[in-house]
Each structure stands twice: as structure tokens, then as C-alpha cells.
Amino acid sequence: MFADVAFPIRSFQTFTYSIPNEHASNIYIGTRVSVPFRNKAIQGIVVNIKKNNSYLGPIKKIIEPVDKVQVITLPLWDLIRWVSKYYMTPIGKVANSVVPKSLSSNFQPQLEKHVKAKKNNNLDTVIKLKKTAPKQFLVYKIISEKDIAHKVSSFKNIVSNPLQICISLKDKGLIKLINKIKLPDINQSVFEPVFKDIVFNRDQTIVINKISLALKKNNFNSFLLHGVTGSGKTEIYIEVVRNCLAQKKTAIVLLPEISLTPQIAGRFRAVFGDVVAIWHSKLKSSQRSWTWGKICTGDFKIVIGARSAIFSPLKNVGLIIVDEEQESSFYQDSKEPRYHARDVALMRGSFEKSTVLVASATPSLESYYNFQQKKIEYLRLPKRYGVAKYPKVHIVDMLSNQEETGKFDQVISGLLQDKIEEKLNKKEQIILIQNRRGFSPTVKCNDCGAHVMCSQCKVALTYHKNNNKLVCHFCSFSIVNDKLVCQECRNSKLIYSGTGTQKVEQLIQQTFPKSKICRLDMDTSKSSMGITSVLKSFSNQEFDILIGTQMVAKGLDFPNATLVGIINADLGLYLPDFRATEKVFQLIYQASGRAGRSTKKGEVVIQTYSPNSSVIKNAKNLNIAKFYENELVDREELNYPPYSWLAKVEFVGPNQPSLLSLIEKFKHNLKGIYTGLDVLGPAPCFLEKLKNNYRFQLVFKSKKQIDPNGIYLHKFIRKNFKNYNNKKLLGQNKINIYFDPISLI
Ligand SMILES: [Zn+2]
Ligand SMILES: [Zn+2]
Fold it and tell me: In what order do the strands lie in the sheet with 175-181?
């Protein structure tokens, strides 16, 4: 027998090896094997097994299989092949980004002490306890309230010596002590489990029944769940995952960003306990290997994580949930394979014959269009859960506000300031969003007006006050502020303009000196621990005001937060991208959803310089249908998705003339241009120079009317860019290909 083996390299070539008899029963398609290659032993993946071999040269033998368990199931292997073909990435590269480098892990998770109440306890002992040992009684009461395992350390905030107290209770025969493994997650960043008693309303019940019915059919089914913010989507996820597990199947839950994972993962851990694995690129490699191994052996039944969790090796996947499917973080654009995890999820669903649920409060235009085209079944939660009401939304026209007050550098309007004061007095919490980090996003010369730019990227530097540095947000370049002079005229007087989150924080602190403020953006949350601890503290009401970028706008649930302020809603509105308005709408709509998620009524203040823009107006009225209607008309007129298939080919290189001549060569030689295909460019990318590399792009739009499944476009790109990774042809330059890119900037 022979095996074709692929390696994680920039080529599509595979190599044939013979399978030694002693390993024949342990080598399948998808097995990792150790093979001799240029006098070294390296790892590859078996991509085909065949009886005969047509290659006439010398054939080497596979040394041995690398793993004892099957690391890739057949449907997962089908998926890897599909990703390789659809996104034009060598299969070994795809497989390599999916499977951890080594599955042999010496990682040993820690053990944690838990307690559980025994059933049928002697009531007399308990009554006696109340009198003789009130502290033990207090702890016992909490333990006995619910039939679940409590972490011993969780009683730390009630008693000083929780372990001793629990041992006494155990000696009295009231509770059991259990050792449980501490599951690896992102620096222990999962929120403590939250238990909620949920009574489903009518809308939720309909949704649950439909999904559960589909789950029973063992067929591929896909749903778009459009639920307004606060409509109780997480509760639905938990219920349908419960149904899925009851049918002896497994489930994958994809969440867009690390900042969302903790709350939802905490809820899942509370309900399902130890069968929940957290999968994220920030796990240490030993933890990844350990987790992957436990998924392979079936110890984990549910995998929750960011986009790469879609490739987890669960067997018999019944349900895949993609929460906040419109989020751009589902698209991996920084490295190959460049893929959209939502689309990969739908494809995995079809290979596994499972149910796929993509959900959002603000579905992407693509998903909304798919529902209109009846390609996906539409489920709706039109009302907020329970007594939560929609917030009242105020729009502040910053231009006329400035004319009235005469303050032209005003960041916080009078109305927003009054509202903040009002909420502070009522001991309610406030969330302020400014979608720009740093202190001053632009620094200009007072004399000649030149912006201070990064020397390696054609990007303005942002002033960060805390370390007194000007920082490039795209490379690691930074420069100490004091040493700075204008790069054009050597003048040392500089103007700091624009408003970042740090500046908002300083202004608010000056205006409300007694308030307790926390900030969340890429700077404060370098580690996921940072994010979770900030969110936990805000959720425990240790802070009055949370200031942040769009990171704080989505998915989070703070019942006491009743005011959301958007400092500048126009940021991003005029970016040269077809998705610019969609993103602004989503930000405002989602941010509004943070206000008033319990019995208290919420308010939203939107500050804008474009109060008459239809996007801002529709977002204010929470009129999502009208927004889709307008936006779809624009997209159709300009032939953008969802009315066309899109591919972006990016050329990157350190030498501009060499790069441009390469692009011209490709463009000049384009073959097979068909009616319905638009070729745009070459044009400089929005970020024209990054890290000393120039960047240009060609964009291809293929009309769906002519190319309904995108097959023409894929064929065209494969044919014309098959040499996209040929080093001889490219020299120092690189070509990156993006199918269905999330943006053109
Ligand atoms: Zn100057
Ligand atoms: Zn830079």
C-alpha cells in the first residue's frame, strides 16, 4: 500500500511513500506520519491511500504514525480539503494550522477541591448546626440550595477558612468533598459559573422547538437566528446544546472575540460542567495539545471558542452555533488559510450532517440576503427577554452644539454630561464608547501642518499619554514624545488633536473626580486576564464608568448599566469600504443593546457630526429593516456582496517599482475575463505602506446573476494566480489572496 503525504509548505505538491506492513492498520487518511525527507525525519499528513503507485523513482517508507488516536475524522478531513481548495491554500498548511504541532503533552491540569451536598440529610444535625456553628451553617445552606458541585475557594468571600469549614461539614456527614480537574482556559479568565432559572417565553419556545426538531433529523440544516439585543439568545444556545447532548452528539459554539468568551463560557460551564472545552489561540501550546487529545478521546463533548474552534476534532457533531456571525473577527486575514469561520461552519455542518445556527442581533447583509433568497431558515426573537425595555435614544448634533456653546473642542456634550451625572447620583452604571484607542490619534506640526507619521508605515502615529510615547498601531514602532520634532521642518511645537479612549478617560475623571472609572481597549487588555478582570470588576459594580473601544459594545450583560454614550458615532462612517456603513450601524445598534438589560430603563446618547445620515437615523430608531432595505439597494447598485462574489489579491513588497511591474505583469496576462466580472485596480491599499512594505491590490467582483455559486470567479483566480507562491517569479514580493474578504481596506 502507498500513501500520499502533504507537508505544511507553500506548495500543493504531495509525496508518495510506501506503508510498512506493521503500521498498515494504523495509517488512515488524516493520520499524521513521520517520514524521511531530505535525510531528515519530518511530519506530514496522509492525504490519500492507494494500492498502486505510478511514480517510477525510488519510493521511501513511512517511518511510523505520529499519534495513537485518530486526530482527524473523515468529515473534518473533508473540511480541510474544502478549505484548501476554496481558499487556495496548500493542504499541508491548512492541516498544520488545524492540528497542534505535538499531541504528546506533559501538561497536567491542577486539581481543585469541590463540595456537594449529600441527599437526605438529617434535619436535626442541620438545626443543631445553626446554633452551634453558624459559619458552617451559612456555607452548608449555600451548598445545599442547588444540586451542583461548588468550588471550595468560592466561599472565600463569606468565610476566611473555607477548606476547614468544608472538612468539618464532611466529618458531620452533610457534604461530599470531590477533587475536580481545573480545566485549562485562557489564564483562568472564565467567569464564575452563573446559574439562572429560566422560563422560556413563547418566541424562545418556538425557536427551540424548530432547532430541536432539525437536530433529530440527522440532516444538514441551517438557521439564521435574528434576536434583538437582550432577547435571551444564550439561554437558547444552552437549551439546544442540551438537546444535542441528549442525542449522544457533540456541539461546537463559536464566539467572535476573546472579550465575549468569558461570560458565555462561564454559563456553559455552570450547566454542563467538565465536558466543556475552551479553545482559543491564546492557550499555551501544552494546553492546546492536552485539550485536543481530550477532544479526540471524547472526554469533551462541547467546544467553545474563537474561530479556530471550528476545526476541533469532535466526533459526531450534531450542532454548530456561530454567535454574532456578522463579526469581522471570524475572518482570519493575517495568515493562511485566509478563511471565514462562519462559512466554514456551514460547510462543516454539511459534511457532518448537522444543524448550524448562525445568530446575531444585527445579521450581516450576506446572511440577511440568504434568508431572503430562502437559502437559510429564518428564526426571530423580536422582543427583549422578561421585563427589559428598549432604551430611549438621544441624538446630539455636535456641530450645532458647538455653535451654541462656542466650544469647538468639546468632547462630551452638555446632554451626555447631565445624563452621566444623573446616573451617578442614582448609583447606576455608565458605558462610554470611543472607537479609537490612545490619547490623541493625530499629532500635527504647529508650523507646517505635517502629521507625525510612522517611518515604516504610511500611518499617523497616536499619542499615548500614560507612557508619553507616540505609537504606531500597525508595527511596533514608538518614539518618546519629548524628543520629537516635525519630520518636515524640524519645528518642535506640535498640536495633539483627535480623541482616543485615554483622553475620554482623563476628561471624565476631571469632570467627575469622585467617580470610579475603568478602561478597556487593546492597550489595557494585552492579556485576556486584563479583559476579564476589568469586566468582572465592572460587573461587580466596583466601577461606575466603563470606557472602551468597540470591545465593550457587544454581547456583554451588565444589568446595572443604564446609560451608554457613544462619543463619536461617525468614526468609520467615511472609510472607503463597502462595509463602512454596516459597521457603524452595528456598533450603534449593539451598543444601544447594552443599556437597560433588566428592570431599569436604559438610555443611549449618540454624539454625531452627521445627524441627518440615514445610517445614524435608522440606528437611533433601532429600525433594522429600513437599514437593510437602504443598504441592499446601495450594494446592488455598486455590485458588492451580497450581489456579487468578491476576491482581493494583495501584492506586498519592499521595492515599489519591482512590485508595480509584478502587478502589471499579472494584470496584463489575465486570461478568461468573462461578462459579469469586474476587475478593479491595481490601486494602493488603504494602508499603502506597512512595516516598510508597499501594498497594492487587485479586486475582482463576479456578479451573482451570472455566477450564482462563485464557481467562475474561483476558476478564474485559480487559473491566473496559480503561481501566487512561486518564489522565483515573485522575488522579494508576496501575493496574498482573499476570497470573500470582510473588507477592501
Ligand atoms: Zn512642520
Ligand atoms: Zn508602523
Answer: 150-151, 111-117, 175-181
Q: Which ligand is nearest to the CA of 687?
A: 2
Q: Are 581 and 631 in contact (CB under 8 A)?
A: yes
- The rounded Å distance from CA 447 to ligand 1 centre is 5
Ligand number with the minimum distance to the CA of 487: 1
3-state secondary structure of 684: strand
Ligand nearest to the CA of 470: 2
Q: Residue 326: what pLDDT?
A: 93
Residue with cell 495513537: 68
- From the CA of 451, how far away is ligand 1's center (Å)? 8
Counting ligands in written order, which one lies closest to the CA of residue 495?
Answer: 1
Report the helix count and the strand count for the chain, using DSSP H and E.
Answer: 21, 31
- What the block records as the C-alpha cell of 308 is 479556530
Per-residue pLDDT, 187: 40
The amino acid sitting at 264 is I
**Residue 543, SS3 per DSSP:** coil
How close is the Cα of 694 to the center of ligand 2, in Å? 12
Q: pLDDT tens for residues 377-433?
A: 999 988 777 666 778 889 999 888 888 888 777 889 999 999 999 999 999 999 999
- Identity of the residue numbered 626: K
What's the 489 CA to ligand 1 centre distance in angstroms? 4
CA of 498 from ligand 2 middle (Å) equals 19
Ligand lying nearest the CA atom of residue 488? 1
pLDDT tens-digit series, residues 24-59: 888 988 888 999 988 888 888 888 899 888 877 889
Smallest-distance ligand from the CA of 478: 2
Separation in Å, CA 177 to CA 3, 276, 512: 52, 22, 48
Amino acid at 716: F
Q: Fill in the amino acid letter for 307.
A: R
The residues, ordered by sequence, that sit 6+ positions from 382 with a Cβ below 8 Å of its Cβ are 203, 228, 231
- Residue 494 CA, ligand 1 centroid: distance in Å: 8
For 9-13, 30-34, 133-137, which range has the lowest pLDDT when averaged over its residues?
9-13
Identify residue 560 by its one-letter amino acid code: N
The answer to whether the beta carbons of residues 33 and 43 sit under 8 Å apart is yes
Residues in the chain: 745
For the stretch 151-159, contacts whose Cβ atoms lie closer than 8 Å and that sit 24 or more positions apart, written own/partner, are 151/112, 151/113, 151/114, 152/112, 152/113, 152/114, 152/115, 152/177, 153/112, 153/113, 154/192, 159/135
The model's pTM: 0.85
Name the closest ligand to CA 692: 2
For residue 502, how far is its CA from the centre of ligand 2 (angstroms)? 20
Q: For residue 107, give the nearest of 185, 184, 26 by alpha carbon.
A: 184
3-state percent helix, strand, coil for the chain, nearest multiple of 5: 35, 25, 40
Report DSSP state, residue 487: T
Query: How far does Cα 322 stand from its chain's mean position?
Result: 10
Cα separation, 590 vs 228, whole angstroms: 9
- Output the CA 440–ligand 1 centroid distance in Å: 18
Q: Is 695 helix (H, G, I), strand (E, B) or coil?
A: strand
Cα(710)–Cα(716) distance, integer angstroms? 10
107 SS3 class: coil
